[in-house]
Amino acid sequence: MVASSLKLQDLIQEIRGAKTQAQEREVIQKECAHIRASFRDGDPLHSHRQLAKLLYVHMLGYPAHFGQMECLKLIASPRFTDKRVGYLGAMLLLDERQDAHLLITNSIKNDLRQGIEAVQGLALCTLSAMGSAEMCRDLAPEVEKLLLQPSPYVRKKAVLTAVHMIRKVPELSDIFLPPCAQLLHERHHGILLGTVTLITELCERSPAALQHFRKVVPQLVHTLRTLVMTGCSAEHSVSGVSDPFLQVQILRLLRILGRNHEESSETMNDLLAQVATNTDTSRNAGNAVLFETVLTIMDIRSAAGLRVLAVNILGRFLLNSDRNIRYVALTSLLKLVQSDHSAVQRHRPTVVECLWEPDASLSRRALELSLALVNSSNVRAMTQELQGFLESCPPDLRADCASGILLAAERFAPTKRWHIDTILRVLTTAGTYVRDDAVANLIQLIGGAQELHAYSVRRLYSALAEDISQQPLVQVAAWCIGEYGDLLLEGTCEETEPLQVEKEEVLALLERVLQSQMSLPATRGYALTALMKLSTRLHGDNNRICQVMSIYGSCQNVELQQRAVEYNALFRKYDHLRVYPEGYTCVLPLRAAVLEKMPLVERGGPQVDEEVKESKEVAQLSEAAPLPTETQASKLLDLLDLLDGPSENAQHPPPLDPTPGDTLIHLLDLPCAPRPPAPIPNLKVFEREGLQLNLSFVRPPGTPTLLLITVTATNTSGGDVTHFICQAAVPKSFQLQLQAPSGDTVPAQGGPPMTQLLRILNPNKAPLRLKLRLTYDHFGQSVQEIFEVNNLPVETWQ
């Protein structure tokens, strides 16, 4: 059976010649049977050839675990041909998850002591590839002895093995500290590169090692200066750059040694300036060295002029034809914009040009950086550029661009009129992509600018007449027309072009919104309320409005139906009533008092949606008119019963005092809303290295099973928290919806917090448990935290 076995070359040729997968499997199964038989017979002369064929089969993805013990036998063999294949098989077939790998520890130790360079190299390669923590602890003294061997070949492999050992077992750092100082004097580039890598690993994992190696900063500076200024042999030159791999590794080590250390940073400042000005940027090798130089300058305590030089280098990267280099430059500038804002501002025109890159990743990075560059001095120009980009940007970027423009306008708006114009243009261009709180924010802004009411209603009416597909725009326009419709017909606004509007045109436009298939139920609610308000704002016959209310009194949507029935009752049943509202000097009809203009309200959080806001608006409007007699009050109670329907457990409101001091019953907020509950206390759930996470809770009165949780992340440390992602999970009996966060960066030094809204529906009112997972980058480290929040206040679910 063994005699009919194929040679390795013949096996490869036969497998490649198989026309189907079934034929390939047949060849491999047949040959594996021969290999098993050879292992059982214990043929010492051909075992390494059989194992070589088995390794090829393993590389094709077929099972080869039955060759593990044969690897151990070949490693223990005195023949070099057997050891070579045995060690290769151990690296491919064994790993630290299998106990069998511990059986080769003694064989590796013996081979390291042999003194034969080729065998020592095989043993070191295997140890660095699959050595477990136990093997590293046992063999560390042997590797430490080989670090000072005369042979450069062995020393280089021993250094690389030491790097693997430090990564596996950081507490072994004390063993390798003394040899590293001697190895830094090596002239062999491979050994020097490995030594610098080893010192880097030691400094990242041991504060004592970091303090120890700060003494060698002058030596590292001298080595790097020699590479930059005098060059090296052509053997180590890449595209005219002297050993860029060694330069990059030395720069990375200098960055670690100079971080938060004034003396070391001062020592390397001149060198970094030389590297930044003398490195060729026409090839990628030079760009790699320059980029690492920029990172080092920004991470140490460098001089201000040197930091400006680093930002200028990144600015030149933005003009490079290579997309990868431009992406790296944009990402780096985004990290620097908080600490070196003025230096990055100089490259603003180039950054804006990158918005129109065809590559989506480049365009997204340019958008993030452009939004970060907006301030009070350039808000007009930057907003104009971003709005131009919003009109033609890809759909997956529109939400980020629209939200970014709205936030920038809110923070840096020079005037209220400019702020309103900016939001209107965003709503007109990409209204369906804006955040949920954009409608409420614009309504609050317009309501607070009394001098711009006429201007705003005219602008919104014109925009609505052109396009009714953008739902947020339609909602704001409907609210504004209903609130200030009288100003629309007056035609007294001097800030806009003359606009002659008739009452019938306004009513027809709102009816068009109601009839449109694109209108959401919330949008129709805004339009219905606007029509009802116009019945008191505009003079003339209201039969057309009454007819619309009657039609929607039988609407399938319960919210619209209830609203139309209530409005219709004001027309038909209570239109004859008169009240004397507080603050007025005359008697007003009940409908006019109920639908009086809204006062300026406090801006709510992002968790307040349009329906809740609209119902609160009606509730506030309905608190201003008295009923004169108990007979009329009883009629209102009949209306309550009509809308609520019969119920055995229904609690009727107490009889009304007929005195004029009592005001209008909550006609449009049926049934009467209870007193708002006490606020739920906030809860701090996470704190680490200056990053703090707080939860605030709101339970909307109209939906007791809904809990709105606002996650607020703040950062008091000295470095930005970037790529911040908060994910949440709840038990299966709950329903969870995560809203988009306000950003993915939490600025340092107590900058603006990052917020995210969680909507949790708890139909069974069960105790709430919340599991959070946080992933972010902080001080150059990627962090992931998973924890469970079990101490939520009882008010969040009871």
Polypeptide structure, described:
It is found in: Cytoplasmic vesicle membrane; Endomembrane system; Golgi apparatus. Belongs to the adaptor complexes large subunit family. It contains 34 helices and 12 strands. The chain is elongated, with a radius of gyration of 37 Å. Among the domains are: 150 residues; 114 residues, Immunoglobulin-like (Sandwich), CATH 2.60.40.1230. Helix 13 packs parallel to helix 15, helix 15 runs antiparallel to helix 16 and helix 17 runs antiparallel to helix 18. 56% of the residues lie in helices and 9% in strands. The longest helix has 21 residues. The strands form 4 sheets. A 5-stranded antiparallel β-sheet has the order 5-6-7-10-9, with no helix packed on it. The protein has a 3-stranded antiparallel β-sheet with strand order 8-11-12, with no helix packed on it. It has a two-stranded antiparallel sheet with strand order 1-2. With 798 residues, it is an alpha+beta fold.
